[in-house]
Each structure stands twice: as structure tokens, then as C-alpha cells.
Specification:
This protein is an alpha+beta fold. It has a single domain, classed as Endonuclease/exonuclease/phosphatase (Deoxyribonuclease I, Chain A, 4-Layer Sandwich). It contains five helices and 13 strands.
Amino acid sequence: MELSYFPLIPIKLVMDEYLDLSILTWNIRGALNREGKRQTRVLIRHYRPLLVAILETHCQFGRVVNFWNSLGYEQCAISEAQGQVGAVWLLKSHDCPYVINVMDIYYQAVTLSVIHRGRLWYFSVVYACPYLCGRQQLWNYLACLRTHIDGHWLLMGDFNEIVLPSEVKGGVFSVNSADKFSEVIEKGRLIDLGAKGSLYTWYRKESGVLKIAKRLD
């Protein structure tokens, strides 16, 4: 999912200024395995992103730093996993022309300030806890972070939550959980930028049979 806050200036005007900016966010589910590295090379060659965010890494960044350097990327901000929870690596290309500074690092999110052509904006990558109590901590954190951001704000990543019954197939739709996430979007004055492609981004199967599917990202 991608959420954005654009104060005062129309969205199209802001986005037109960043047509040369490509950001790749990927829940890799293991950054060390051979297939993950192969797919990484394919994505990098195809999209040539200036910024790359890797989620659910299952390893420490130090174990793959040489791999990313070989692709032309260096770390911006690293939030390592705490057990099976968290892990957000935010990388930039070696020739990235933007002035980038780390604003904050949280175990479920990292936030940068970015300056481009004299304009300042903020970028957060989120990998929400799979457990409800952990996500509530994230929602509280984002609400607090919002009070320190005065400008355009882009949020991307895996929020591990949905807001509409149409975003889940199978399982149970939790109105309470959806309302809490919707409250984050509303109070943050954020806009869901939508998505192209498959309606669902996460699946669970049992004995080869699809049990549940959700649009979590």
C-alpha cells in the first residue's frame, strides 16, 4: 500500500515534479536465499530504482552488504528484525541525486527527509507487526511522527492490515482492526494512492487449497 499526505499543493503538480524518481518496495521473505537474490537482480535491471526498501529480510544487513554494493546500492537506514518481527532496509543507488537524511528509525518503520530541487518531503517505509498489539504500537507511533512532519509525506510498505471487506477473500473481516487503521489514515490526512495488478497480495494455503487472501500491501 502507498499512502501520501500532500498539503495545499495539488497532487498532480507534486507528482509531476518526481517523474524521474523510482522507488522499489518488496517484502522479500528472506534476503539471503538464492531465488530472492535472482529476483532482486531482475527487478533492479528492469526498474533502475533510486531508492529500494526491503522488508521481512530474515537476516542482518551485514550478511548481504557486498551483494547490494555490487548492484550499485548503499544503505540509507536499517532497522533490523527483532525475532520474527520487523526488518526494514532502505537503500539508495550510488548515483542518487537527492539529499537524503535519516529522520527516525523505529522497529516497524524508517523515515527519511528528502530534498529535491529545493523542495523538502518525507518518506517512510513500513513493515507492520503481524500481531494486533504490535500494529497498535505502530499506529500510535505514526500518529506521533505525523506531528513532526510539516510537508509532503509518502508512506509505503506492508501495513499488515486492510480497511474494506472487499480486500479479503476467506477468513474473517475484523471491523475493529479495520477501523483502527482507517483512523490512522484519517487523522494523518493521508490518501490511499491505490494499486494496479492483482487485487490480493497475500495468500495462505492449506494442503494446496487457498484458505484466505488479502490485499495487505
